[in-house]
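Design request, tokens follow.
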């Protein structure tokens, strides 16, 4: 499969399969692939940049055992630990950050140290 063929398909709104992407990776240099990806980015996004501000709603005590994460209760990482912030504190923090980043408050970003976060802030709330 040729890079130009897949590039043209993607520029027309299509996609590449995982197999095609792996084959391209074997056949073309990183520079060639990055140049093609940058052309797609320019065509789809222009010079626009989306930003996100994350509010840490809970820190530490996570019951998950992710070896890469400072939030896990299984490791002494020295992070500041606290339980879930109350709803109003999370809302106030989102409202404070929104003007700084021109955020769309319909999709605020909150992060918490475990999956139980969804009990406190369900996606449809």
């Amino acid at each position: 499969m040729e890079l130009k063929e897949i590039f043209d398909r993607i520029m027309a709104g299509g996609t590449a399969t995982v197999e095609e992407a792996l084959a391209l990776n074997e056949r073309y240099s990183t520079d060639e692939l990055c140049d093609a990806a940058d052309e797609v980015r320019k065509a789809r996004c222009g010079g626009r940049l989306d930003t996100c501000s994350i509010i840490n709603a809970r820190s530490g005590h996570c019951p998950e055992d992710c070896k890469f994460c400072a939030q896990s209760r299984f490791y002494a990482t020295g992070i500041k630990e606290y339980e879930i912030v109350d709803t109003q504190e999370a809302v106030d923090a989102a409202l404070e950050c929104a003007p700084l980043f021109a955020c769309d408050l319909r999709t605020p970003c909150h992060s918490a140290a475990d999956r139980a976060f969804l009990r406190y802030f369900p996606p449809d709330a």
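Comment from the thread starter after seeing the answer: thanks! The mean pLDDT is 78.
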